[in-house]
Amino acid sequence: MNKIEESLKSIVKDSVKKVYDIELLDTDIVVEIPKDPSFGDYSTNVAMRLTKQLRQNPRAVAEKIVEELKKNSYFEDVTIAGPGFINFRLSKKAFTRVINDVLLQNNNYGKNSSGKGLRILVEYVSANPTGDLHLGHARGAVWGDCITRLLNASGYDCLREYYVNDGGHQIDMLSESLYSRYCELFGIEYPLPEDGYHAQDIIDIAKQIKEEDDDKWLHVDPKERFLIFKDKGIKLELAKIERDLSNYNCEFDSWISEKSLYDTGYVQSTLELMEKMGLTYEQDGALWLKTTLYGDDKDRVLRKQDGSYTYFTPDIANHIYKLERGYTKLVNLWGADHHGYVPRMCGALDALGNPKNTLEVDIIQMVRLVENGKEVKMSKRTGNAITIRELCEEVGVDAARYTFVSRAVDTHLDFDIGIAKSKTSENPVYYAQYAHARICSLLKEYPIFTPVPSYDLIGDEKEKLLIKQMNEFPEIVADAALTRAPHKICNFIQKFSQYIHSYYGSFKIKQLDNQELINQRLCLLKACKITLKNALGLIGVSAPESMNRE
RNA sequence: GUCCACAUAGCUCAGCUGGAUAGAGCAACGGCCUUCUAAGCCGUAGGUCAUGGGUUCGAAUCCCUUUGUGGACGCCA
Q: CA 20 to 30 Å from A85, out of A56, A58, A92, A541?
């Protein structure tokens, strides 16, 4: 809740108490900015909410409250409209206070403490180290990155984690595929497994190994070689993934390996714990977990007939390990193709006695790449699925990020590569960056200005829009963090940029003679620049000082 | 077949713990550069919020029906 809302609510509460002798809570009162500014600066529906209790029609209730509210100098005007909305017009002083708040807090403006004391671990991307990251991963990476930026800005203690699946069958295939490609470089035939990896990146890695070690591995014991190629494969694939993510402005705090959960005995101890709690049973030579007792539609296998473990087992250990590190809230971002896995994992955590909703899984819907209205399935260059690297090269990091983060994740996304690539007004990311650059160039022309205690010359409708929007920002950040919805930041950016462009167009500072008016407007613009830059920072998009047209 | 999402302007999408006349960008049409960057501004047009019902002072928003689209239903990961 921002300062203006705080004040409004407390004033409304006092008035209702005085008129009707009813004690309201903050949550009973909704204060919002009306869609149509002609209604007022802010409005509340409190009269409508009291209708039932008082058995009077809402307008009558509103009239009595307004009579009381009008006595307060915080308002320029208070009116009743529609079915019983109370609309406020604020006094100038109440309004412009935010300008100095922003100037003072600078880079910290927008940060809030709504998540203070909460420890939350967010796991995302977690792609197998068996190939390049593709479009779906890119969406998940940006989304996770933005969520964690928001959580950090809202005071949560948050960890960004990547779970590395380096333990299962697919890694064996990686080793074999890699060796096959390696042999190929020496003209030796070695079968590439059918469910192995056929993509170009395996060939590239094989070449890298050849450059480093030459033919050294052709002559070692197959068992040893198998393990070595496993290791090399994982290491090189992971390095590539990390580099691609980093180029994409996505950094992780923690990379947790599936294999290490076996090595440290975590998998074993988790199994023992579940057995001890009576959550498992043997059937058909396999070990099962009773997830049906906790909302799953069938029980799941932990240990297969052949004695090896399913993917599920170390993953349970993985989640237990998260909790043991003191994170009380776990969030995973999974692709839509994994949504059937959700009840299973949540069921396992429930079974182990964790509070409901300890784990929440956000599902990232599919991405389709589109160009000129047609779906683009494969990269023209490589013939394989389009990678995150190609995407960044093609459209640029800022545009790619913005496209992904500006849409809610629960709907299928058509990524129009033509629009993302275009450096025109079709591309919303430039719109926002341009708004920032325009203020910057203005501030370069007028580098000297001083904040004042009261902005008595500010108060035009367009200035009010800027101030209201700026004032909302910390609350929007807190809400976007809580609901894990970074696209709300994009909505903010878009609207705010629009106000900035509109203001920029209608008030030319150069045409003014009044030095004090210029000064006050520069303060306002500087505050806008700070707010916009911070907002862009929350979604990992740059805020350039100038836009270079090509 | 069972389960889970989703359906809003020509296109891509916001709005969803119920609130005033459902919004934005693009595309279309008409204006605005001798003044801080026209990657911009101002205006016009564009809607049965998939369908049918229910809940109530009030529904795009909550509940149910039907249709359509995508996904999941492995001792794969």
A: A92
Block means of pLDDT (10 residues each) for chain A, 550 residues, are 76 85 74 76 81 73 85 85 82 86 96 93 95 90 96 96 92 94 95 87 94 94 94 95 95 96 95 96 94 90 94 96 96 91 93 91 86 73 80 88 89 80 74 94 94 91 89 91 93 93 91 92 96 96 84
Phi, psi for residue A252 in degrees, rounded to 5: -115, 150
This complex has an ipTM of 0.93
Please give the Cα distance from A123 to A126 (Å, whole number).
Answer: 7
Strand A75-81 and strand A85-90: pairing?
Answer: antiparallel
Q: How far is the CA of A137 from the C1' of B45 (A)?
A: 40
Contact (Cβ atoms closer than 8 angstroms) between residue A154 and residue A409: no
3-class SS shares of chain A: helix, strand, coil, % to 5: 55, 15, 30
H-assigned helices in A446-550:
461-482, 487-506, 515-538
For residue A283, what are the contacts with CB-CB under 8 A and spacing of at least 6? none
CA–CA dist A74, A91 (Å, integer):
6
Assigned token pair, A217: 């591995």
Strand duo A254-257 + A157-164: pairing:
parallel
Q: Are A58 and A28 in contact (CB under 8 A)?
A: no
Residues A432-444 as b or e (16 or more Cβ within 10 Å = b): bbbbbbbbbebbe
